[in-house]
Amino acid sequence: MKKIVYKSPYISDNFYYFLLLLFMQFLVLMIFIIIVTTSIFQIDFLLDILLLLLSYFQLRAIKNAIVYFFPYEEYTIVNDRLYYEKKLKILKKFFILKKFNIKLDSIISILDLPPKKFFYTSGRGFQPLKYIYYFKPCERICIKTED
Description:
This protein is of the alpha+beta class and 147 residues long. It has three helices and six strands; from the N terminus they run E-H-H-E-E-E-E-H-E. The protein has one domain.
């Protein structure tokens, strides 16, 4: 039995960007609540729609960060079968997000993609959209089989 465990080398950076995204989401929700409860602005309907749209993309990026960037992967080979598990550990409890097994004979090729690294754009100031763009869904391994 051979076992390989993969954890992202950028987990601390991802966690930092994830916390920034949560903070931005909290700010957007607070602004939305303030605007809805007080009708100071005349164009609050358009602003509400804009804030809800931004909130949607931030929540989608938060979900993608949890599902694709924080779990670790286990590969185990037992009796000519490859067992794959994608696990997420939250508060000392494990959640299996993805699990499958494949016969080694049916595998044509395995493509091991590098972990996604954060890109630094030029410019000044805080750019919240780059955090939403960074947490797009991505798979780390691609296995081609015969069927």
